[in-house]
Amino acid sequence: MGTKWAEAILVLCCSLLTIHVHGNNASPKAITKASLLLHRQKRPYAQSPALELASKLASSSVAASSSPLVYHVTSYGADPTGKADSTDAILGAISDALKGPGNGFLMEGIVNLGGARVDLDGGNYLISRPLQFPVAGKGNLLIHGGSLKASQDFPNDGYLIDLSPASKNGSGYNYEFVTLRDLLLDSGFRGGGIQVVDSLRTNIDNCYITRFNTTGISVQGGHETYIRYTYLGQRITAGGDPNERSFSGTAIVLSGNDNSVTEVVIFSAAVGIMILGQANLISGVHCYNKATGFGGTGIYLKTPGLTQTRIVNSYLDFTGIVAEDPVQLTISGCFFLGDAYVVLKSVKGVASGVNIVDNMFAGSDKGIDIVQLDGGFNQVDQVVIDKNSVKGMKLKATVARGSAERNGNGTTTSWIADFSSVLVFPNLIKQVQYTFITDGSSFPVHALRNVSGNKVLVQSDIEVPASVYVTADQGGHFFS
Ligand SMILES: *[C@@H]1O[C@H](CO)[C@@H](O)[C@H](O)[C@H]1NC(C)=O
Ligand SMILES: *[C@@H]1O[C@H](CO)[C@@H](O)[C@H](O)[C@H]1NC(C)=O
Ligand SMILES: *[C@@H]1O[C@H](CO)[C@@H](O)[C@H](O)[C@H]1NC(C)=O
Ligand SMILES: *[C@@H]1O[C@H](CO)[C@@H](O)[C@H](O)[C@H]1NC(C)=O
After folding, report:
1. Which CATH architecture does the domain made up of 52-391 adopt?
2. Pick from 2, 175, 222, 302: most CB atoms within 10 A?
3. Ligand approaching nearest to the C-alpha of 451
């Protein structure tokens, strides 16, 4: 009963409100539509033309508390032709958005801005200082729909959009659920594109970030910055660029945990993705930023011992992966083209919980190893490099199978299986299995006699015609 009454009152209120707004002679159908429209105006991502119109009408009085929370930068005097400096105008819109009415809290201390939107109105704006958020403690905000270009006096240590508060209140996260979408950021070879500091659940979606001199997207601290469907390149090129040798800068730096980079293309930069934090996911990324041959790196894992990184379903195109002392690293389902390879770089000599499996490698028959070591490793545990498909490069693995075939009808007492050209780690075999097959009339005693230099020696007590089949494993985990 109580619920029915509440519904009836609600319907009545809506109708009254609607009639008030749209006139007395609206038909019942029109009322229903209008009620819906009113309702939808409060929703952050509704994109109906009617809503756009409502937003436009409202933009002339953004400060009024009853208007939808859409802040059009052109209403603040931003110049969409990119001629006049629009820094102050856009900062004004961002600042007002952050000051907008709150609708409760997200994480403790993070005011829910209710899906407020800063709309770049499809313009192209000249920016001379970082668009740095003035205050911290805000969430549920969208900035979208236009291009930003750094002017010739933009500071080289700045980022066009900077989610690090100019003033910070408290020690918690700065921002939560801020979305940067449908943006083209042109740093004009001065500074970087986007910086996200100590923030939670930041989305960078469908952006094109170019001409950065330092870093395209820098994530420092915080959690769960999701970068997706985004293109990054220092120079606008589509491969085979005559200036490739001088590409510099880093497209993405992840200096924090639990971030995700998915469906991203990195088309020019010295380093594609630099990973300095744990538990980051890289998936569906195409790196053709700067060829290894010119000194570039596709993905660089530069935190020894703390990586917990998954690199899956990605395309390393003439540029490879470098991992320093990897611990819990998976590289799987990736395609390495143009002699691209993986380097395990020793800092303290630890490689643990590493899976490099089920990848494809294609090269040009120069004999380049698919996995290479830079320095020596003395702590190797649970490292599996296996089941990769290799064409035109040299297969390396931690598991190898081989045989010492019988020598015609001759007889012998020694069989050597040499794995030194296949196994990744020098002089390391943790486990050997062998099968001894003879069709001679005698029944010899045989044994594994020596494992050294990645060679396996099996011997028998008497001369027999026999073949020996051997499996050697360098890094698997074994039960004792
Ligand atoms: C770009 O960065 C390099 C150092 O990485 C610096 O030498 C150069 O001056 C920067 N370019 C500009 C325009 O500031
Ligand atoms: C910090 O936030 C509280 C609550 O919003 C406010 O009362 C206080 O003035 C703020 N302090 C500073 C330094 O901004
Ligand atoms: C091995 O011996 C068999 C018969 O015992 C003979 O037919 C065969 O030709 C021999 N093979 C070689 C390589 O000597
Ligand atoms: C095993 O082989 C290596 C290399 O040939 C040799 O130096 C070593 O002495 C051998 N070990 C034994 C126990 O025979």
Report:
1. 3 Solenoid (2.160)
2. 175
3. 4
Q: Quick check: 375 and 349 in contact, CB under 8 A?
A: yes
The token pair that represents 32 in the structure block: 């229903």
Span from the CA of 439 to the centroid of ligand 3 (angstroms): 13
Ligand 1 centre and the CA of 193: distance in Å?
15
From the CA of 212, how far away is ligand 1's center (Å)? Answer: 10
Looking at residues 398-427, what average pLDDT do you find? 92
Confidence (pTM): 0.84
Closest residue to atom 11 of ligand 1, CA basis: 190
Q: Which residues lie closer than 8 Å to 301 by C-beta, 6 or more apart?
A: 275, 307, 309, 321, 322, 323, 324, 326, 329
Q: How many CA atoms lie within 13 A of 380 on its CB side?
A: 23
Structural contact between residues 254 and 280, judged by C-beta atoms closer than 8 angstroms: yes
Which ligand is in closest contact with the Cα of 407?
Answer: 3
Q: Residue 388 has which token pair?
A: 């990769």
Residue 287 CB contacts under 8 Å (≥ 6 apart), including other chains: 266, 272, 273, 298, 299, 314, 315, 316, 317, 319
Residue 305: pLDDT over 90 = no
Higher confidence at residue 169 or residue 209?
209
- Quote the pLDDT of residue 215: 98
C-beta 65 within 6 A of ligand 4 = no
Ligand nearest to the CA of 136: 2
